[in-house]
Amino acid sequence: MLASTFATHPAAAAAARRRGPIRWRLPFCSQIVTVTLRRRFPMARLSITNALASQSLESAPAAPPKHSFPILVNSCTGKMGKAVAEAAVSAGLQLVPVSFSAIEVPDGKVEICDREIYIRDPSEGESILPSIAKDYPDMIVVDYTVPDAVNANAELYCKLGLPFVMGTTGGNRQLLHKTVEDANVYAVISPQMGKQVVAFLAAMEIMAEQFPGAFSGYKLEVMESHQATKLDISGTAKAVISCFQKLGVSFNLNEVKQVRDPQEQLTLVGVPEEHLSGHAFHMYHLTSPDETVSFEFQHNVCGRSIYAEGTLDAALFLHKKIQSGANKKLYDMIDVLREGNMR
């Protein structure tokens, strides 16, 4: 999408010049991917039925989806888990009132959209999940926990035959895929759930495959900004850089400018203050050897709704595949995009 760009405040521009050679003029934050070309510059055994006696999980939304099913979100104590749970309720899905998290919460439960979610320790998963699955036979699990729990959680879901969407990054991904394939369970696994970001990555991969070397000799500058708690380089940035390398650009990951300082994010990057604790701004600037041609690719995300909505589309996609008895069991977000009927 061609996008208009807006210059930052003059003081911010001056600060940017003092910081180094990357000269960005950023568009206002949006929830979509933009590509810009322009001139440089988650006790005793829990009885789910009893726990729900005083609740009405199906107290219904105004416009239920065509396919309604129970969804269990791990972990609702985290920001992404909470965002997905809220989006599920809004979409009319049946939110299972249990979530697994090592984080202690008052009274052992959290409230999401007027629904009480009982928080259980992850160590209880193997003893509690079977009863939950019995009460909710069509349940799909969504995992937004921690990287260290990815493989153990997937092994448990597979052992119990539970279909799941793995949105948590990290872990041993090769082992993760092998675990799912060996167990023959339905799953969507993707480190990136933002549909539009995935589409942008897919386009980049197609370009890199079909036009290798198209940017040979070009200089690449990369800047990515995330909340201060994210210490590593974005996996999305790594994927985009890999595409540029296939296109002929010489670039090392240690050249990525990681912005984690809130003040710098405000003045240099242009992140709205209310989104400092949750954003993903990526900027890629290409310059020809003689500096007469430049390209800029940019995708900025504020908040977590893009990932929550993408996760729901993945769960809805998986539910349809299960209901249809699809032979294929393991999917990624590209498969979800190709289905072409996202909300």
Describe this structure in words.
The chain has 343 residues and is α/β, with parallel strands linked by helices. It folds into two domains: 70-193 and 305-339, Rossmann fold; 195-303, 2-Layer Sandwich (Dihydrodipicolinate Reductase, domain 2). The chain is built from eleven helices and 14 strands. The chain has helices at 10-19, 48-51, 79-90, 125-135, 150-160, 173-183, 195-210, 235-246, 262-269, 305-324, 333-339; strands at 33-34, 70-74, 94-95, 98-100, 109-112, 115-120, 140-143, 164-166, 187-189, 219-226, 257-259, 279-287, 294-302, 330-331. It has a six-stranded parallel β-sheet, sandwiched between helices. It has a five-stranded mixed β-sheet with strand order 1-13-12-10-11. The longest helix has 20 residues, at 305-324. The chain is globular.
Mean of residue pLDDT values:
83
How large, in whole angstroms, is the Cα Rg? 22 Å
Q: What is the 3D form?
A: globular
Question: By helix and strand content, what is the structural category?
Answer: alpha/beta
Our measurement of the CA-to-CA distance between the termini, rounded to an integer number of angstroms, reads 20 Å
Kindly report the CATH topology of the largest domain: Rossmann fold
Number of strands: 14
Helical content stands at: 25-40%
Number of domains: 2
Strand content: 15-25%
- Strand numbers in spatial order across the main sheet: 3-2-7-8-9-14
Individual helix count: 11
The CATH first-level class of the largest domain comes to Alpha Beta
Largest sheet geometry: 6 strands, parallel
Low-confidence stretches: 1-65
The CATH architecture name of the largest domain reads 3-Layer(aba) Sandwich
Order of helices and strands: HEHEHEEEEHEHEHEHEHEHEEHEH
